[in-house]
């Protein structure tokens, strides 16, 4: 196969075959309070590894099968479904020593405040994935992990 045969143009549709199932591309981001990881530096009473925020983004490749990605995948970005959650009662826990604190700069929708008890009782996976992708039965099965 020549090199030209393996290249994909971002201005043309991706050359999919007729698949029965299209994969989901899922990205997770979890942020813990960094001050709770080093007991020698702590000046507060917070527990180890306290969750301060988490989020996920999902691209359903079935949605993009007939859409050229465009320059830097600009045509696909509107099709990515994202959710961002911040933990109520932990607003004062700010990172900055090892990583930038950008919990209030979510650029892909609105952040949702939830309690730590709600996260624990429902588990990350089941919490909101189903509501985002409720139109796909396979996704519902995937989203039930805890």
TrEMBL record:
Domain Gfd2/YDR514C-like C-terminal: 26-121
Transmembrane segments: none
GO cellular component: nucleus
InterPro entries, alphabetized: Gfd2/YDR514C-like (IPR040151), Gfd2/YDR514C-like_C (IPR048519)
Protein name per its UniProtKB record: Gfd2/YDR514C-like C-terminal domain-containing protein
Organism expressing this protein natively: Diplodia seriata
């Amino acid at each position: 196969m020549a090199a030209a045969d393996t290249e994909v143009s971002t201005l043309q549709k991706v050359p999919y075959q007729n698949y029965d199932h299209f994969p989901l591309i899922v990205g997770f981001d979890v942020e813990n309070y960094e001050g709770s990881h080093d007991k020698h530096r702590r000046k507060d009473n917070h527990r180890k590894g306290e969750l301060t925020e988490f989020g996920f983004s999902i691209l359903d490749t079935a949605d993009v099968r007939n859409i050229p990605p465009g320059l830097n995948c600009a045509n696909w970005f509107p099709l990515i479904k994202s959710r961002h959650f911040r933990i109520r009662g932990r607003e004062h826990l700010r990172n900055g020593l090892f990583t930038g604190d950008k919990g209030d700069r979510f650029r892909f929708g609105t952040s949702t405040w939830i309690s730590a008890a709600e996260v624990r009782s429902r588990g990350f996976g089941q919490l909101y994935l189903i509501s985002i992708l409720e139109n796909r039965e396979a996704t519902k099965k995937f989203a039930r992990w805890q």
